[in-house]
Design goal:
Radius of gyration: 16 Å
Order of helices and strands: HHEHHEEH
Strand order of the largest sheet: 1-3-2
């Protein structure tokens, strides 16, 4: 048997939109942003996202953040949902996966909600 390496394709991380007060969202932008906010609407996902974002060095091994009160397969499911929404990126290193917050996406979410512009 040969060892197979799985490659995780990351979603493109592109800032989204102008602030809500400056222009109406396009259908495409509203679908993209809704997926991101929906992913963060789950308490376990929000905790995992927070653990990654606040982890020293700006990245976290799944082994360091999985203590959120659910099973390991459930943690993996939630991290997958955060990756699919474009909120996290991941990199496999040996047997562990390391996660980073996608800064341009978070900046886009922040800009969308900036009502001071």
């Amino acid at each position: 048997m040969s060892n197979l390496e799985l490659t995780v394709l990351e979603p493109e991380t592109v800032p989204c939109c102008a602030p809500l007060t400056s222009a109406e969202l396009s259908v495409e932008d509203s679908v993209r942003m809704a997926a991101m906010f929906k992913a963060l609407g789950d308490p376990v996902r929000l905790r995992l996202f927070s653990k990654v974002a606040s982890h020293p060095g700006g990245e976290a091994c799944v082994c360091d953040i999985q203590d959120v009160g659910v099973s390991q397969p459930t943690v993996s499911h939630h991290l997958k949902k955060l990756r699919e929404a474009g909120l996290l990126t991941s990199e496999r290193r040996g047997t562990w996966v390391y996660y980073k917050v996608a800064p341009s996406v978070v900046a886009g979410m922040s800009a969308l909600l900036d009502l001071t512009r």
